[in-house]
Amino acid sequence: MPSPSSALLEIRGLRVRFGAQDVLRGVDLDVAPGEIVGVIGETGSGKTTLARSVVGLVKPSAGAIRYEATDLVALGDGRRRRAFRRSGAIQLVFQDPLRSLDPGVRISQTVTEGLAVRGRLSARERRMEAERALALVGLGPELLERIPGDISGGQRQRVAVARALVTRPRLILLDEPVSALDASNRGALLRTLGELRDELGAALVIISHDLASMAGVVDRVVVLYEGAVVEHGPIERVFAAPEHEYTRLLLAAAPAAALAAVA
Ligand SMILES: Nc1ncnc2c1ncn2[C@@H]1O[C@H](COP(=O)(O)OP(=O)(O)OP(=O)(O)O)[C@@H](O)[C@H]1O
Ligand SMILES: [Mg+2]
């Protein structure tokens, strides 16, 4: 993939091996500041592994991951990794918000957990930050006193995004943020994500198994197939003239309305 020298995130030749299985087989990916990139692929293609590698939860067997001037692979898993994590520059929103939100903990506490990185804040400041983060994802302050079991699935997914926002990240990786939602919630959350880019200037990587749902949302897509990038390019180009057979199959399965959205 051509390398914009201004890349925020730059991944080169990333390989991940679990036991005897090559899960990522030399993945290249660039993300520019403020850009929205879709990573598309079927189940098991390595999407979550890619995201987890970026935040240091998976150790690559080869390849480079750079965030601005920082070599993320070289951070290891000790003190330097923790310091980088505390900076909050990169946030991962996990695939399953029900599992990643603590069922017994109020939304207010969940959303403000990441604020520890900003030093001691008063209760009032924490409350304001929580309200701001919820407002950014289109939720009202009345949710703050509730627990995850007492809000809807769509609201939980938004809370998971809100939690990622309090550290003011410059890069947010979202692992299947809309796949558990019905069509109307899916469209609404994807629009909200687009607005977040505009308001915060954050770059987003949106992982999905559904190429069609990325129409009108992402600037570029990367198609992963069995751990390798088989196609990448601006979403309009990929929709209009897919180069790889696998991408053509994905598009053939897409509803016509989604294809019209990028026409
Ligand atoms: N910790 C692990 N140990 C061993 N194998 C793993 C581990 N994590 C993932 N895998 C394997 O790596 C492959 C890719 O998994 P990954 O979760 O990255 O896929 P995915 O594209 O996110 O799939 P899905 O769309 O179902 O979420 C799968 O075959 C999976 O079983
Ligand atoms: Mg996954």
Protein described:
Residues 9-251 form the ABC transporter domain. One of its GO terms (molecular function) is ATP hydrolysis activity. Keywords: ATP-binding, Nucleotide-binding, Transport. The protein has 263 residues and is an alpha/beta fold. It folds into 2 domains: 9-89 and 169-260, 3-Layer(aba) Sandwich (Rossmann fold), CATH 3.40.50.300; 102-168, no CATH class. The protein has 10 helices and 10 strands. α5 packs across α6. The longest helix has 18 residues, at 183-200. Magnesium ion binds at residues 47-48, 95, 175.
Key attributes of the depicted protein:
alpha/beta; Rossmann fold; 2 domains; six-stranded mixed sheet; globular; binds adenosine-5'-triphosphate; ATP hydrolysis activity
Ligand kinds: adenosine-5'-triphosphate, magnesium ion
Structural class: alpha/beta
| Approximate strand percentage | 15-25%
Element string (H = helix, E = strand) = EEEHEEHEHHHHEHEEEHHH
User: Which spans have pLDDT < 50 for at least 5 consecutive residues?
Assistant: none
CATH topology call of the largest domain: Rossmann fold
Which whole number gives the mean pLDDT? 91
State the helicity in percent bands.
Answer: 25-40%
Q: Cα distance, first to last residue?
A: 25 Å
What composes the largest sheet? 6 strands, mixed
Spatial strand arrangement across the major sheet:
6-7-8-3-9-10
Integer count of domains: 2
Q: What is the C-level CATH assignment of the largest domain?
A: Alpha Beta
Tell me the total number of β-strands. Answer: 10
- Please name the fourth-level CATH homologous superfamily of the largest domain: P-loop containing nucleotide triphosphate hydrolases
Shape descriptor: globular
Number of helices: 10
CA gyration radius, whole angstroms: 18 Å
- By CATH, the architecture of the largest domain is named 3-Layer(aba) Sandwich
